[in-house]
Structures are given as C-alpha cells and as structure tokens.
Task: structure prediction
Amino acid sequence: MAQYATNRNDITVVITDLVTPLMDGVAATRALRKLTPNLKIICASGLADDAKVIEAARAGVDTFLPKPYTAAHLLRALDRLLHPA
Result:
C-alpha cells in the first residue's frame, strides 16, 4: 500500500493475492478503491473458496486469477482490463 500511495500516478493495474500475511486481497482492494476508485485490480489465489472470491468481487476486484496461472493467462487478463472491447 505504501508503494502504491507513493507511485499511484504511474500505476494502472495492481495485482494482489487474496491471501497475504499482513493485508488480504479484499482489504487491499477496499483500501485501493478509496485511494483510486477507477484503478484496475487483479486478484490471484490458489486457496480461495467461492465465498472469498465473491467477497473480493464485491470489494471491487476486476478480475480473479486462479493459481496456478501462466504468463499467457495473466497477459490475457491484463489485455481485457486495459483494452476492453
């Protein structure tokens, strides 16, 4: 969050994990949305249950990426967010 707050004018997309030691993806998404409502957010996890994914979507995650994912999966997600049809 400190890195984002310092560099937010240069950041278009944030990729976070749903489960992290200090701040989970849902809390991070809520905090990021307060700072920059139109920020694009991708959340990834290998341990997420459906309830957690729904909670993340309600918090404002734009795309959920289940782990393991490939570089191609990540690039497609980024392309969809940055170049919507």
Observations:
- The radius of gyration is 12 Å.
- Residues 1 and 31 are 8 Å apart (CA to CA).
- The mean pLDDT is 92.
